[in-house]
From TrEMBL:
Membrane topology: Single-pass type I membrane protein
SUPFAM superfamilies reported in the protein's UniProt record: Protein kinase-like (PK-like)
Annotated localization: Membrane
Keyword DNA repair: no
Family: Belongs to the protein kinase superfamily.
PROSITE patterns, sorted: PROTEIN_KINASE_ATP, PROTEIN_KINASE_DOM, PROTEIN_KINASE_ST
Segments crossing the lipid bilayer: 58-77
Name this protein carries in UniProt: non-specific serine/threonine protein kinase
Keyword field: ATP-binding, Disulfide bond, EGF-like domain, Glycoprotein, Kinase, Lectin, Membrane, Nucleotide-binding, Phosphoprotein, Receptor, Serine/threonine-protein kinase, Signal, Transferase, Transmembrane, Transmembrane helix
Amino acids binding ATP: 145
Enzymatic class: transferase
Length: 431
């Protein structure tokens, strides 16, 4: 055997030469001799193996490796996606809320802290949170409601903000914007400088008193706002908590309905809804006595009738400071109802009103009695009430002056009944 260059020649002692084989020497390795294949029988040389031919033993090995790699890749991607969902779900939802068309302005929590001087001046407190006074950078005064019941998720809050933001009427408090950061839920409303109606219509509150013309305009404003909610917006909205504390007054004493914290939004093709009792004692319609009774917009009509009486008579519908005979306003109205011209006698200080004022007051009291009928079917729609107040229609001549007194307690303040938590479609304005 001899080695020449990179070729190794093997002498076998046979007369015929054997094929030579070239061995490639790897770097840093010593040359190795590869034995040539034995000659085939009968001098037939077998074909050289093709590079595409793979030994059968490598097929299952290769498939197994590919399968393992696939499993590893899928596992890694799944783990990364799961971790993102766990850690960033809130951020994803927050990002989604930014892209809802027609949404009010979105504020950061820090912006509202600055605007309210770290929530320094409280305007009021209700069943769903507190309201604070603030001012934006451009000088716009705002009322910020900080929701304190945190059971509501981001999607429910988004639905709520969308619903409130879609309400556009002069006699409804306007939603300017909102804040949704982690557990913080805040709603930003226009600020109304004269506060709530109850601070003005009752003579024993802060010594304030409104003249008859202003009271009449306030009644019209409330009716217009309710008519929009019941009959003219995209969905029918039953407010469910109409009372003087939820009527706000701007600098010109225009009235705007606020606090949709107990409201129910229903499709326009639905005339009634079955819900548990909610509202404020003293303003609750008789049909609430039925367990899970079928409720319509007429419960708001009843509450409006109570508010109308309180505005006209300048006193609360239940006043414990009054003698027993005048303790309950509806009891007085029921006694005077037998003589319709005598219903005005439930109003105190009649000497302060002119003859024309007295005629309008009598008309208003009759409208209130119409709204307070025990049978919801006998109560008018708010649009009908507006026509009567504007002198286009006459009051129903078949009013029944018999009123239910099952729920006569009406504690002052913001006490309310809500035997079930509000659903996702519930709206929340300042209380």
């Amino acid at each position: 055997m001899s080695i020449t260059g990179n070729k190794t020649v093997v002498s076998s002692g046979h007369a015929e030469p054997t094929p030579s084989t070239t061995v490639i020497i790897a770097p840093s390795l010593s040359p190795q001799v590869k034995k040539p294949p034995s000659p085939s029988p009968q001098g037939i040389t077998p074909p050289s193996p093709s590079p595409q031919d793979t030994p059968p033993s490598l097929v299952p090995f290769t498939a197994g490796v590919l399968l393992i790699i696939s499993f590893v890749v899928i596992f890694i991607l799944k783990a990364r996606w799961h971790g993102k969902s766990e850690q960033d779900q809130q951020d994803v939802e927050d990002d989604h809320i930014k892209h809802v068309p027609g949404m009010p302005v979105r504020f950061s929590y820090q912006e509202l802290c600055v605007a309210t001087d770290n929530f320094n001046e409280r305007l009021g407190r209700g069943g769903f949170g507190s309201v604070f006074k603030g001012k934006l950078g451009d000088g716009t005064q705002i009322a910020v409601k900080r929701l304190e019941k945190r059971g509501q998720g981001m999607s429910a809050f988004l639905a709520e903000a969308e619903a409130i933001g879609s309400l556009h009427h002069f006699n409804l408090v306007r939603l300017i914007g909102f804040c949704a950061e982690k557990s913080s839920r805040l709603l930003v409303f226009e600020y109304l400088s004269n506060g709530s109606l109850d601070n003005w219509i009752f003579t024993n509150v802060q010594g304030s008193f409104l003249d008859w013309q202003t009271r009449k305009e306030i009644i019209l404003d409330i009716a217009k706002g309710l008519a929009y909610l019941h009959e003219y917006c995209r969905h029918t909205i039953i407010h469910l908590d109409v009372k003087p504390q939820n009527i706000l007054l701007d600098s010109s004493f225009h009235a705007k309905i606020a606090d949709f914290g107990l409201s129910k939004l229903i499709n326009r093709d639905m005339s009634q809804v079955q819900i548990s009792m909610r509202g404020t004692p003293g303003y609750l319609a008789p049909e609430w006595r039925q367990p899970l009774g079928r409720i319509t917009v007429k419960v708001d009509i009843y509450s409006f009738g109570i508010v109308l009486l309180e505005i006209v008579c300048a006193r609360r519908n239940v006043d414990q400071s009054q003698p027993e005979s005048a303790f309950h306003l509806l009891t007085m109205l029921q006694k005077k109802g037998d003589h319709e011209d005598g219903v005005i006698d439930i109003v105190e200080n009649l000497d302060e009103y002119t003859r024309s004022d007295r005629e309008e007051i009598t008309r208003m009291i009759k409208v209130a009695a119409w709204c307070l009928q025990d049978d919801p079917e006998r109560r008018p729609l708010v649009s009908t009430v507006l026509k009567v107040l504007e002198g286009v229609m006459e009051v129903d001549s078949n009013i029944i002056y018999r009123f239910s007194h099952a729920m006569i307690s009406s504690p002052p303040g913001n006490n309310h009944i809500s035997s079930a938590p509000p659903p996702a479609s519930v709206l929340s304005n300042p209380r």
